[in-house]
Write a structure and sequence with these properties.
With about 80 residues, the protein is an alpha+beta fold. It has one domain. The chain has 2 helices and 4 strands. Strands 2-3-1-4 form a 4-stranded antiparallel β-sheet.
Length: about 80
Amino acid sequence: MASAFVLIECNHGFLQIVFSELTKLGPEMIHKIAGAQYDIIMKIHASDNDHLKKQATEIKEFKNIRSTLSLIVMA
């Protein structure tokens, strides 16, 4: 099982919309962040690194997401 933390920066004024859309993906953990460059942090899981990268790319392509930073968990 592969895991990653994805930090997400939203376009101004779209935090709640992006947050609502991301919760539909069913991640284990998703939180809003206050006072930082990134607005949301979420933890995702996949069966292997290739599927994990695919998930992270899909998140990056969501409407109103300005940028992402994916941090793969090494176990």
